[in-house]
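[Discussion] Sanity-checking designs against the backbone

I'm trying to build intuition for which residues belong where. Below is a structure token string of 281 positions. I'd appreciate it if someone posts a full sequence so I can compare it with mine line by line.
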């Protein structure tokens, strides 16, 4: 087994694989065990990794979603516990209060306990990504997760393209932003620009793992990536499992150099956004 990260640092595995076939649970456990042996404390999976890419069509099916604590939740929890590693996974979760479905990141610790969840905020509706036909947007901003030594935050795919979410997480204390996604190979260069800009301007690590291959006629695929707080690309790969170490010292250094030392001006922007909100989203 590789050396563990020092206190406060975090080693993350980017696992570009999906798990919805007959052998899914065994393969999921094997992938997490592989990540753990490679030294990872936390593994990140792609967007809704235990579903086929459901938004390939407009047709939503009951079996695509589950109640809180449903079978996909249990599979992720059990695999995390078996491998002894934290996991960022997800499912389409049906709310028990309003009955609505949301694309929800589920974060488990190494004992398989759910420590955070976050529903995707920004949903596309276009060929291959008919997401508003399958679930509704979340209604709460992402929170910082403090269960892994280094504080982390979650964004899901299109959320990355609204950088105020990244900036809010960083201002709230997140030192790494983890972004499961499902994007096409042909659009990767655009995503790469946004991911680097979010890392540089939030002075936080930004990590994103993609679904690995075309599904349902949608040309999904393209690299998983890890970007340092100064905008340097640390890892860019289509390997199924890749591991990167995140160092808190790099975050601290970025935040004392330009643009990290610039003031956040939270009240000024909060007031301006409040004016926008009063005019309608």
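Best answer:
Here's mine. Compare freely.
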């Amino acid at each position: 087994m590789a050396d563990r990260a020092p206190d406060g640092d975090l080693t993350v595995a980017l696992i570009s694989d999906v798990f919805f076939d007959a052998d899914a649970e065994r393969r999921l456990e094997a992938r997490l065990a592989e990540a753990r042996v490679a030294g990872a404390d936390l593994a990140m999976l792609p967007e809704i990794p235990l579903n086929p890419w459901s938004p390939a069509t407009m047709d939503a099916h009951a079996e695509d979603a589950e109640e809180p604590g449903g079978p996909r939740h249990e599979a992720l929890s059990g695999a995390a516990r078996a491998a002894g590693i934290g996991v960022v996974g997800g499912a389409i979760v049906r709310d028990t209060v309003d009955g609505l479905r949301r694309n929800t990141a589920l974060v488990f610790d190494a004992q398989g306990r759910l420590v955070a969840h976050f529903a995707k905020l920004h949903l596309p509706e276009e060929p291959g990504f008919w997401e508003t036909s399958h679930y509704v947007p979340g209604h709460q901003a992402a929170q910082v997760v403090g269960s892994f030594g280094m504080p982390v935050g979650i964004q899901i795919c299109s959320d990355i393209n609204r950088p105020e979410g990244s900036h809010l997480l960083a201002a709230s204390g997140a030192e790494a932003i983890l972004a499961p996604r499902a994007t096409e190979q042909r659009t990767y260069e655009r995503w790469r620009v946004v991911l680097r800009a979010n890392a540089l301007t939030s002075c936080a690590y930004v990590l994103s793992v993609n679904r690995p291959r075309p599904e349902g006629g949608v040309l999904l695929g393209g690299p998983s990536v890890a970007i340092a707080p100064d905008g340097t690309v640390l890892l860019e790969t289509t390997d199924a499992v890749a591991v990167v170490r995140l160092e808190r010292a790099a975050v601290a250094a970025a935040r004392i150099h330009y643009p990290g030392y610039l003031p956040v001006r939270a009240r000024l922007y909060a007031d301006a956004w409040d004016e926008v909100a009063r005019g309608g989203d």
